[in-house]
Write a structure and sequence with these properties.
It contains 13 helices and 16 strands. The chain is an alpha/beta fold. The protein starts with 9 loop residues before the first strand and ends with a strand.
Length: 398
């Protein structure tokens, strides 16, 4: 797990090195938390909200070297320190690669590994590990301990290791709500099938290939695609949605010979802010024929009445927009919906309840979910596909 054993009311000044996932403080305590951290003698570094977008070098190796060079380290010691960081991270085979070509989670981890070389002893960021797999989250925690850093991630995600800030200390937060099981609803989705033959997509700049010589999955309701950061999950989704060229064939077979019309919420829009209210956005979806007027009115009423949607939208405007779009795919004219990381940075229980409401209100449709949250995947998907380094690592019934 990410954090060492702690007692309640543990002072921030005496926290052991590691990563601590902290519930977002209220407006008043947020200022207090920042002021308290700034007063600590070893200083605090505030990570930007989209930390993975703040990469400045042309290669992974140069990105890691950047902060060492700023500290005046050069020559043999510089190379030794860079190698040490690379060996403690999943970048051994990507050291000469352009950081912009990495997956979202890999960019997030690279930025964090570089930030650890800054001098402050405390780091704080909002949802700065939201894209990391469980494996890479453990690597981040190990690196924090290795460099004797205390890292506070303010996050809406829920886990068994949540902490709450109060009066200069951390207390164990309340155990989050259990995730609802959505299979009673998703079991009504008409069965569909997926077959890939000789599917291959290569990115030379990433030194990466998605390579699926043969894949056939039948009796699908909801397919979950899982794997580590950079394993090819989003690349496969892009291929299935027809958004990128590839070698080989993809055959999606819907029930009764229904034509495939894919709606896709991509990971790349995860933090885009939108000031428009959901009524304005629903009007745009109707205008572009993504929703019928009748379904838009029905969906708008569901949004107005949904406590789960309101909970998310009040937490974060961008997250509310993203969740509203995910529900619109399920309510709209699409015959297959793909949701890439629908629980990104959010309380999974609220997201699950909202998706359940939408699927119960509208005709359930074939669905593909991409997620690092295995707990979420197990409660919504009837089959799971695991990828590793662009290849199939296994498949399981849900």
């Amino acid at each position: 797990m990410c954090t060492p054993f702690l007692k309640n009311n543990q002072s921030l000044a005496t926290l052991p090195p590691g990563v601590y996932q902290v519930q977002p403080p209220t407006d008043g305590t947020a200022v207090e938390l920042w002021t308290h951290l700034a007063s600590l003698p070893d200083g605090v570094l505030r990570l930007p909200r989209r930390v993975g977008d703040f990469l400045v070098a042309d290669t992974v190796r140069e990105e890691i070297a950047f902060d060492f060079e700023n500290q005046g380290i050069s020559g043999r010691e510089l190379r030794r320190q860079i190698d040490r960081v690379i060996q403690a991270s999943p970048f051994t085979f990507h050291s000469g690669q352009d950081p912009a070509s990495l997956s979202g989670g890999e960019r997030q981890l690279l930025a964090f590994m570089a930030a650890l070389r800054q001098s402050p002893g405390h780091l704080i960021g909002f949802n700065c590990f939201g894209s990391l797999s469980e494996h890479n989250l453990k690597l981040a925690a190990q690196a924090a301990r290795q460099y004797s850093k205390v890292v506070l991630e303010i996050s809406y995600r829920t886990s068994q290791e949540m902490w709450r800030y109060a009066d200069g200390a951390l207390d164990q937060a309340t155990v989050p709500d259990a995730l609802p099981d959505l299979k009673a609803v998703t079991g009504h989705i008409p069965q569909w099938g997926l077959r890939c033959r000789g599917l291959k997509k290569t990115y030379q700049e990433r030194n990466f290939s998605l390579d699926l010589p043969s894949l056939e999955m039948k009796a699908l309701h909801v397919l979950g695609i899982c794997g580590d950061n950079g394993s090819g999950k989003s690349t496969l989704a892009d291929c299935l949605a027809g958004l990128t060229g590839f070698k080989g064939t993809v055959d999606i077979r819907l029930s009764h010979g229904q034509a495939v019309n894919v709606g896709y919420i991509m990971q790349s829009i995860v933090d885009q802010p939108h000031d428009a209210g959901y009524q304005d956005l629903l009007e745009q979806l109707v205008e572009y024929k993504k929703l019928s007027g009748e379904h838009a009115a029905q969906y708008g009423q569901l949004l107005a009445d949904s406590e789960s949607y309101t909970q998310v939208a009040e937490l974060d405007k961008a997250a509310g927009y993203r969740l509203m779009l995910a529900g619109a795919l399920l309510a709209g004219a699409y015959t297959l919906a793909i949701l890439d990381e629908p629980t990104y940075g959010l309380p999974a229980a609220a997201v699950s309840r909202f998706l359940k409401e939408v699927m119960a209100a509208f005709k359930p449709k074939p669905l593909i979910i991409i997620s690092h949250d295995f707990n979420f995947i197990e409660r919504i998907c009837n089959q799971q596909l695991f990828l590793e380094n662009g290849k199939i690592d296994g498949a399981l019934p849900g």
